[in-house]
Amino acid sequence: MENKRLKTKVTNVVSFVPNGDYYYNKALKAIERDEMDKAYKFIKRAADLSPDDAHVLLQYGILEMELQNFEHAYELIHTAYSLEPNESEIIFMMAEVSGCMGHIADAQKYAAQYLDMEPNGTYTEDASEILEFVDYVGEDMDDMEEFDGAKHVAQEKARRHMEQGDFKTAIEMLEQIIEEYPDLWNAYNNLALAYFYVGEAEQARALLYRVLRENQGNLHALCNLAVFAYYEKSSEELNELVGLLKKIQPFDWENRYKLGATFALIGQYEDAYKWLRSMSKKGYDGEPGFYFWLAQSAYFSGHETIAKEAWKMLIQLDPSKEGMEPWANGEGSILRNSAENHRDFIIRQLTDEHQSSRLFGMFLLKRSAHKQEIVAHPSILNVSNFTAIEKLCLAYALDYDFSNGSKEEKQFLRFMEVAEQITEVNDSISLEVAQVLSTWFALGEIAFEQGYSFKNSAALAAAVEYSFHVALENKVTKKAVAGKYNISTATLSKYNDELYEFVPSDFE
């Protein structure tokens, strides 16, 4: 059908104030000039400003079809259809997008409806071709059923709100969906996730248990329970669920993807890689999330070439992920065993009751391959309860530009520089280095609160490492540690004495 479905008629009157019509017309002009990137930007803005304008939504949906984003295209065009169900062009586009989605019965229904309305219309030939195709494949598709578009669109809208972190709206929508469709188990599962992410863990679990009672063996419910157990640190329950999930051998794409993504999220990378890689080998053409989890599981199970191939596919689908690769903070297997790439350890630090541990967790987060995933999780980092220094540390982890910082920010950066010195001198954050860093954050937190200046970062890093080894009665000399940090033994002794002032009284 080429690009004739893309509108070329432009009105002559444009509002002085940029509104939906203004951006809609700019999109149509961009289409005329074949500037599709600009057209997409303008039509998206028009839809934001005029979310109830059927023609804007239709044009947006057509552009999404051109980009093969069929799920979103269907949502947009179906919404336009619900607003103007008697508009012949919208009805034809419902036939077109239904065919793209594989909903053959719907494609047939809407194409026939269009031909009844417009026997000599713009899309008559295309509608006839759709009916011919349905007749051709119909012999092998005796069980064709009409697709419940309203139900699908409602679920997609709820899912989109969840992805955007708007869990309150998602919960309202999903509650309404399950009231209308009491056997729609996917809606229950998504509602359980939404409740969990807003802190209603008991309600979330109750929903999943209901699903398992009424739809025994529901894989999505079992996977979600595993995710809950993982984040709640319920080790015994998690081990039982992981053992059960490892016995399941799903055949269809949806369940393989859910199982693989769940294994990846809870750190079972070998099992995650097995299922996700099996899908890619068999030609599965996934969404961005699929390639994200495939790259993660491949990288952390030692399949770096596959990981990079998957990430390349992800970037093609979602360029915003550029620079967020699991290996972006360092190449090679040496870093895979470093503390910053142990997700469970980082999460334990970030959720610890002691502020110094949380600061250490955010320091690790800055260089972690799991940063994007952890930051995106709605309950791990409770920013609303952060203290001032925690907010500074999170900004540091997220690479905030402190170039024009206040006096307090400059003091904070000197505090962080000591941790950076310890990390740099020791090459990677082994278990022992992690313990040194943990000691530093415990002492440095107190020093920061007392206004300490952190003048010599190398000397402070040497002092905390030396003090750590002395406390464990390890055989180490001041000369050796001072040489490691390129300072004199006298300087180490001076800063060791200064550091001692911040040791809590109950540890002396």
From TrEMBL:
Pfam families: TPR_19. TPR repeats lie at residues 20-53, 54-87. The keyword NADP does not apply. InterPro entries: TPR-like_helical_dom_sf (IPR011990), TPR_rpt (IPR019734). It comes from Solibacillus silvestris (strain StLB046). The lineage of its organism: Bacteria, Bacillati, Bacillota, Bacilli, Bacillales. It comes from the Bacteria. Gene3D superfamilies: Tetratricopeptide repeat domain. Transmembrane segments: none annotated. This is FOG: TPR repeat. Keywords: Repeat, TPR repeat.
